[in-house]
Amino acid sequence: MASRSTVIFPKDWIWGAATAAYQVEGATREDGRGPSIWDTFCRVPGAIANGDTGEIACDHYHRTAGDIALMRELGLGAYRFSISWPRIFPTGSGRPNAAGLDFYRRLVDDLHAAGITPHVTLYHWDLPQALQDQGGWENRDTARRFGELAYTVAAALGAGVHHWYTINEPWVASFLGHWMGQHAPGKRDLRVALLAAHNLLLAHGEGLVALRSEMRPGDAAGIVLNLAPCEPATDSNADLEAAHRADGFVNRWFLDALYRGAYPDDMVRLYGDAMPEVEAGDMALISQPTDLLGINYYTRNVVAHDPAAPPLETRRIVPVDAPVTAMGWEVYPRGIYQVLKRVHDDYAPGRMLIAENGAAYDDSLVDGQVDDPEREVFLHDHLLEVYRAIEEGVPVGGYFVWSLLDNFEWAWGYGKRFGIVYVDFATQERIIKRSGHWYGHVTREHGISG
Ligand code: IFM
């Protein structure tokens, strides 16, 4: 347990926790919700560990009152959640589904009543299946449909929502979903993935335009990127080059497009014929100024050149003896500082937030308690590194733990637990883990031990 707080965060610092619709809501067939690509993908034999699905998940859809009470117990100032697109547009277009909008209206009102600020992500990967049937993210039109979603949700919720994020982790949605086949819609084609990435960025642009038409003075909108320092495994030229390519693949592709208005030349050359067509005006739409940038940080990439693999397929290495989480990801707190500093120095996007940070561990419930000291240390050490960035003048304004609840961890199903609150999926009972009690202490003290 942390002792006396010696590191106090800035006065207007935001303490939050995050979830995403498909991972927590359940109720996939209720109140007019249409199917999403994840409902479909979960039915593909072998796609999801243990054959799990998001059909019930944490049943958050029916349990928001209890979950908001938990947030209060944790002293959260903010809750980041996402909108299920197929709840709003069950068939991808046409008239919005009033029951879907009502659910989020009530959630926003109830959060305010509890003194918790809603941070809303518009797309966290659950594309309506109806839009996938028309090409999904391979179809430029999906970006326009996303603009309609953004406009509709902002018009319905704008009075109570002042922090908006268009797309969560476009890298994951495009490359894990369209090149590596591990996420919905399960495609395996680099050309398709690059097209999806471009259309996701266009959607971000369309979304910003739509949000701005409804936003009030002082409201903020941006995007959320998963970023990681990419470091060479050795100082050989081959590894240095491989690390630079990995950086282009994961980080620069999106940061350059968003904050410099162009894809990085070296990567454009590397992708060659797989490059999507970029139309006049696309990069201007994509690189409109944002008011905030959400950064999701989990680990670093240590990269080695692999002579047997094509140039993009570098080898990711976990250094020997490095501590790892249950995902096998290296625990590397310094990376969160490196990412914040680098993005500020190289791209100056203005205000940033840590929109996700956290760890999966093999938690178990013993005598009604979950003792997860590793997660507590993980969060503490990352927060200390965030504080270091603040001290060096990086404009970072808040921190959202991933996740509020154990939930549906995509292809891993319910086998990987990221929550600071344990969920017994058989009974839907919630138990605040040791790390959650610790985080509650942090939010109230407004700081951590140094
Ligand atoms: O669970 C995911 C989340 O949906 C997006 N960011 C990473 C998390 C952990 O894998």
What's the SSE blueprint?
Layout: E1 7-8, E2 14-18, H1 21-24, H2 37-41, H3 64-73, E3 78-82, H4 85-88, H5 98-113, E4 117-123, H6 129-132, H7 141-157, E5 163-168, H8 170-178, H9 190-214, E6 220-226, E7 230-232, H10 237-260, H11 265-271, H12 282-286, E8 292-296, E9 301-304, E10 315-317, H13 334-347, E11 352-357, E12 365-366, E13 369-370, H14 373-391, E14 396-402, E15 421-424, E16 429-432, H15 434-445, E17 447-448
Parallel strand pairs: 2-3, 2-14, 3-4, 4-5, 5-6, 6-8, 7-9, 8-11, 11-14
Antiparallel strand pairs: 1-17, 9-10, 12-13, 15-16
Bound molecules: 5-hydroxymethyl-3,4-dihydroxypiperidine.
5-hydroxymethyl-3,4-dihydroxypiperidine (IFM) binds near residues 20, 169, 402, 409 and 418.
Folded structure, characterized:
The chain is α/β, with parallel strands linked by helices. It has a single domain (6-449), classed as TIM Barrel (Alpha-Beta Barrel). The chain is built from 15 helices and 17 strands. The strands form 5 sheets. The chain has an 8-stranded parallel beta barrel, surrounded by 6 helices. A 3-stranded mixed β-sheet has the order 7-9-10, with helices on one face. It is globular.
